[in-house]
């Protein structure tokens, strides 16, 4: 396990927060999965700690799924959210899921706190954005 991952796991434990899984990927990156039951939906945030221990990538790959008919409205909604909200970028993946993404540069002194802050912000922002996206795709 990478030192940055270990520091983050310790931070989760200190805050009595649970994680689902930790794995080391083929490229040497570590992946930590954290689930959230939000007011508006349930999400899973995938946290990728770079093998260089210089960056972290947070991804929520399934904010919601859209159909081809809903795609234009979903894309407009993502653009609107990206203009309105800081910290998290919304996009639509090839599999037609709305994603939320955040990235940060970290080191051993900042990894735990920065990753925790971004993870909590992402959960809060997705919770706020989810009804907006659904309103856009179902109108």
Automatic annotation (TrEMBL):
Organism: Coprococcus intestinihominis
Name recorded for this polypeptide: YbjN domain-containing protein
Lineage: Bacteria, Bacillati, Bacillota, Clostridia, Lachnospirales
Pfam family, one: YbjN
């Amino acid at each position: 396990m990478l030192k940055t991952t270990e520091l983050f796991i310790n931070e989760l434990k200190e805050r009595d927060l649970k994680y689902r899984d930790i794995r080391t990927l083929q490229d040497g990156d570590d992946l930590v999965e954290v689930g959230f039951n939000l007011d508006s939906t349930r999400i899973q945030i995938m946290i990728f700690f770079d093998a260089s221990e210089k960056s972290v990538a947070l991804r929520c790959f399934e904010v919601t799924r859209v159909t081809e008919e809903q795609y234009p409205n979903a894309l407009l909604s993502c653009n609107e959210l990206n203009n309105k909200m800081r910290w998290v970028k919304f996009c639509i993946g090839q599999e037609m899921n709305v994603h939320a993404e955040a990235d940060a540069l970290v080191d051993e002194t900042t990894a735990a706190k920065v990753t925790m802050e971004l993870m909590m912000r992402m959960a809060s922002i997705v919770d706020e954005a989810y009804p907006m996206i659904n309103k856009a795709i179902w109108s």
